[in-house]
User: What shape does this take?
Amino acid sequence: MLDRLREPWTDKRAGLMLGALACFVLAAIVFMLVFVAIKAWPSFQHNGLSWFSAKGNVDQQLDAMVNSGPNPSSADYQLGAWPLIYATLLTTGLATLLALFFSLFSAIFIVEFAPERIRRLIVPIVRLLAAVPSVIYGLIGILVLAPFVGSSLISESQKSDVQFVIPLTGTGLGVAVIVLAVMITPIMIAFTVDGLHSIPTAWREGALALGVNRWRAMWSVTVRAARPAIIAGVVLATARALGEAIMISMVAGSKGFSPNPLDGLTFLFEPLRTLAATVVEDAESINAPSMQASLYAMALVLLAGSFFLSLGSWIIKQPLKKYGTRS
Amino acid sequence: MAVPTRPSTQSAGLPPLPPPRSPGKKREAKKRRVNESVSTWRLTDRIGYVIMWAAGLTICAIGVGIVAFMAFKGVQYLRPQLIFSHPTVDVDQSASGGFLDPLLGTLLITLIGIIIATPIAIAAATWIVEYGRPTWLARLIDSGIEIIAGTPDIVIALFGLVLFQQGIFSWMSFTAEGGAVFGRSFLTAGAMMSLIALPMVFANTREGLQAIPAHVREASYALGKTKAATIRRVLLPSVKANISTGAALGMGRIAGDTAIIVVLLGASLRLDPSGSVPGLNVLKGTGGTLTSYVYNNSPAGEGNAAEKAYAAAFVLLLIIIALNFGVDLIARSSAKTGLETSRLGAR
Assistant: This one.
């Protein structure tokens, strides 16, 4: 047996070995889906579709689960997760919009307009921003941004307006969106730069030859042609934002509350908690069966969301292949 | 911007095309561009141009600001004894010890994760590029890795918890008297961390393999080498730089991940060995890393010791910057824009 292992591998055996290791990845995905779905089932079973609706106070429901003991009754599984889902959609959506704005313009800057000296500075910075751990972003958010917002931007009248509903301390939607946008901007810049580079230079030169200025040529020819790549980048960055747990749990105020856009500017200061942040914060009480089922249900929703976003980016990227461009 | 040279396609009846531009002409073109004044542009274009500069400079300011701020706080609070002393539980920041254990935890978990991830990622990339039959399976694995790359780390953590609480994995973590498997240990957390690093190693290795021209393989076959020997002796050695790039990036991701540590490693203050076998008992035990230390010492955690959090975060940032610097050293020659998506962990 050992002798057989020592002799050089035949092609077929090498192919089988490598293929088996590659299939390990598929096994991991299938197991992940199956295990998480099995664990999540009780929560959906007891709640039905009202799991996705707003009923009662989420924080109280989760607290009740912690205290429900090893044999919870059906009432202990009660959960209306809408405030958490709404918070996830809100932070992800706003951060993606903000990051799209910044990343699109910065990518144009990097690709076409930046002087060589600034380009040599900004590219490592973007790479560094992509590599900084989320916990450091969270630390800066909670120790620098949130106190600043709490003491300087929120007026006393705003605090007293809503003090019976929710206390405003600085941590909340606005800080979370800004920090989250900073986190996902580098990814979007990378995709946009990639997309802009993949458009043939001759197209832009054609526009220049027709007499438009450099900005107009970039904006109306290259950016327009690179739209699928840009949108694919946006979708993948959205997936990243969707699953961000630690940073959000640090800077978003950690209240199961639905900020109301009708509150005007106060809306930006209201605390909230996303699905991922809830999972990470309540993970220590995961031994209570009802809590466990609820957390796995949230994880399943996140998993489904990121899966559909991956699928979406794949579909969006298809038109790009028409041009014969990369990625 | 490189000016493409055009082969002069002269045909009868047409006036001859101008000859390909020479480097001397290039300088002239550049000069003309400087003369093009933004003030002659339309208002909307000028607004866009200004926004673009503002966005670019804002990114620069944010990056420099974060690094400068963390460096300032780090220098302010980081003391050598913090790195070399064990943490203790204390309300007072001056008595709660250092972060030797979390630092060791970070190194240990990074090592375990990358040791598991690298072989699998290399095997998957090699199989897809060099074998790739049946095609549907190759495509499935390719999208599978893309899905793993997009899966939130908190979901991976919960998956690890349920997976390693199964009886057959009881050797990997602490087992209670009733037979319940705890599921939290360095081994289990490292195994799940490998899923985070895997897409990065895979993407970089595949990129490198695809960039090898076909004639290299053909030359090897012509010398009578088998396909397996070609992969082993020719292809893998020539993508060594790509593999190390991917591994370094993956290590950066592992070192910076918090959610898996909090759920799957227990995020305790000290390394907490389990069992009696030396070496294995640490791997089977729980512990914490720098990320969980920062999280627990921030106002969001129980510790609420901002000075310790800043100091640990600075050390963590130094590790990340060192890994990034390593990537730059390895990949300097092959980098095109410096912003390839495979280098930022998003494909």
